[in-house]
Amino acid sequence: MNRYKVMFNNKKNTEKIFVPFLILGDPNLKQSIKIIKTVISSGADAIELGIPFSDPLADGPIIQKSNKRALKNKISIKKIFKTIKKIRKENKKLPIGLLIYANLIFNFGIKKFYYYCYKSGIDSVLIPDVPIQESYEFRKYSLLNKISSIYICPPNANNILIKKISKYSQDYVYLVSRTGVTGIHKKNTKINIKIINMLIKNKSAPILNGFGINKCTNIKLIFKSGISGIICGSKIISLIEKYLLNENKMLKKIKKLCIFFKKSTYLK
User: Fold this and answer.
1) pTM over 0.85
2) Which of 26, 59, 123, 171 is catalytic?
């Protein structure tokens, strides 16, 4: 069963996809599991989990701090896979994606990593610091273990890159709204309609948009472009940092925000 395909196929024309992004193990493993359960129960159609890393180049200050908090707990990749296995056991149909940097995979072993992904119930893997032209070895083992490879499409992608992304990014394409790193910005996110049309023309997988998504008007504007959904991380993770010493308030605020995001995905 391809959970992403089922998810997209089950959506009506009046509903889009909401995918929260969280760093697994932030602020600690026990609380992280509670936060994941909260976003799932508050309307997440899928989840994307970041594996803690000391140098997350694609991320802004909010997610960098999240990585640091998780790393303080000395969480191992084996413990992470064990935790994901438990999440999967409780959520049979929910698509679960990983965002992980290449060094962590190399240190663990590429073949071993994708096998563990398969055994844990992972659906997709996104490696932000591996260019598509250098990703063959990763794709090879992802295919062997029935794990989807996800690629980022930048807002300034040329036609050659878009063709490659359309060919190799399975289940969805991660379209970023702007160059740079993740984070909350005051200005509304602008979508490059030309890029979206080129992806569609090249018959890409469904398009999910991320980077800087934080306001309802922001989300409604994004959906007018014809994309399939949104990925939201920094805005949710900022609440973990803000209410670090008050777990109950933290979970309530995260729940309220996720319900707001999910409601924003209904077009009528």
Assistant:
1) yes
2) 59
